[in-house]
Specification:
The protein is an all-alpha fold. Helix content is 73%, strand content 0%. It has 11 helices and no strands. Helix 1 crosses helix 2.
């Protein structure tokens, strides 16, 4: 299915999300349209199938960073900057409002798990402080990823942009 995603991204990057059909993706991938629908459900789900927000939570739980800000930054960079398809995926997402809203929803759906990871990092059970941190971190990540994608001429590393943006959330 990675090959199907690669073909879909290539076609959509060339012709636009709306102009490409599942049938075209299937034909170019040498699979049937029903196979594409069975694995992905919809064309939108195919673009969003990398599950980066869920991977963010997994990675956040694994980081050994000493602060929640640094752990979140490291996890986000590992999920988005380390994967070359993330840039293409962001391009497709930002060019299509329904995809952008679905992607933002995927990120927001991870808020409680991110808050729990922040609390666990401190050895606490969690609460309003961790919920607020998680919501703020998701907002900063969303804005930073969109800026990172849009700044194609002066491409700075996501790590650098996110570190700068997250500095605003650090508390003494």
């Amino acid at each position: 299915m990675d090959q199907v995603r690669a073909v879909a991204f290539d076609l959509m990057s060339t012709h636009g999300f709306d102009a490409v059909t599942v049938e075209q993706i299937a034909a170019r991938s040498s699979v049937s349209p029903s196979t594409v629908y069975r694995y992905f459900g919809t064309k939108e789900a195919l673009v969003l199938s990398a599950s980066r927000p869920a991977h963010l939570v997994e990675r956040l739980r694994e980081t050994g960073e000493t602060t929640w800000v640094d752990g979140f930054r490291r996890a986000a960079v590992d999920v988005w900057e380390a994967d070359a398809t993330a840039e293409v995926e962001l391009g497709l997402i930002t060019a299509n409002d329904p995809l952008l809203h679905a992607w933002e929803r995927q990120l927001l759906d991870q808020r409680t798990d991110i808050a729990a990871a922040f609390a666990a990092q401190r050895g606490k059970s969690g609460g309003a402080k961790d919920d607020a941190r998680a919501a703020a971190a998701i907002g900063v990540l969303t804005a930073t990823l969109l800026r990172w994608h849009a700044d194609s001429e002066n491409k700075k590393s996501l790590d650098r942009l996110l570190a700068k943006a997250l500095d605003a959330l650090r508390s003494d």
